[in-house]
Amino acid sequence: MKRIVLGAAAFLAATLSAPAFAAVSVDGVCADDLVLTAGSSLAGCSDRSDSDVLDTVRDPELNAALAKLGYDGPAVTYRGLPGTAFLGSLNGAHTLNLPNAFNGTVYLGVEYDDGKGNAGKSMRIYKIAASDLDKITLNRGAGQNAVVLATVPGRLPEAATWGMLLLGFGAVGFALRKAKALSDARFEEKIKRLAAGENA
After folding, report:
1. For residue 45, which of 145, 124, 110 has the smallest C-alpha distance?
2. Residue from 161, 163, 175 nearest 14 by CA
3. What is the pLDDT of residue 27?
4. pLDDT of 131 above 80
5. What is the distance between the alpha carbons of residues 194 and 64, in angstroms, rounded to a whole number?
């Protein structure tokens, strides 16, 4: 019985493990830049660029920065992004209220302004492991502009994973029923011996 319980615990631990993107480490440079909705976490960021701002950056440079963060989807064309991707001018605000809750991986570009006009602007791209992400607070300078550059929805397990999960639950259920049947049979034998006056 102990083996069955340990086996079931090991199986559940393996199937309920954290999503793959949770293992990405964050360098110390941007770890404190953002405060995210509970359940979401910062998974990485690009180097802070002091020369380009979001609306003037060249698409190859933008895609190179996204690739360094692990994005492998279709190429991003800044001027081709849908209108809903642009979170608008923040006018120095420190809080981004997103139009809807995001789940999966979100690549967010933020343009910062230190009050020196275009010469003081800089940008950074963040990779966020999102879970119902609907609000972001900027800890590092006031935001000038922000845009959702790309999203990758959370992946569903493969069919083989589902098959193994069902097989595992079936095996655990079978083992528990068999153990209960053996226990019931032993208990009935013990009752019969006691009723016959034998020492159990």
Report:
1. 124
2. 161
3. 47
4. yes
5. 80
**73-91: per-residue pLDDT in tens?**
888 888 788 777 777 667 6
Q: What's the token pair of residue 27? A: 């360098």
Q: 0.85 exceeded by the pTM?
A: no
Sign of CA dihedral 176, 180, 183, 189: negative
pLDDT-derived band at 23 (thresholds 50, 70, 90) equals very low
Would you give the DSSP letter of residue 84?
G
Strands (E), the chain: 34-36, 41-45, 86-89, 95-113, 121-138, 142-152
Give the pair of three-digit tokens for residue 14: 């393996």
Number of other residues whose CB lies within 10 A of the CB of residue 75 = 13
**Is residue 165 within a helix (H) or strand (E), and if so which, with residue range?**
helix 159-195
DSSP 22: G
Least trusted range by pLDDT, from 53-62, 80-89, 174-183, 190-199: 53-62
Q: Where are the domains of the chain?
A: 2-12+157-195, 21-152
Report the DSSP beta bridge partners of residue 143: 112
Q: Which two tokens stand for residue 178?
A: 């068999």
Any idea which of 96-100, 111-115, 145-149, 177-181 has the lowest mean pLDDT? 111-115
Question: 61 φ, ψ to 5°?
Answer: -65, -40
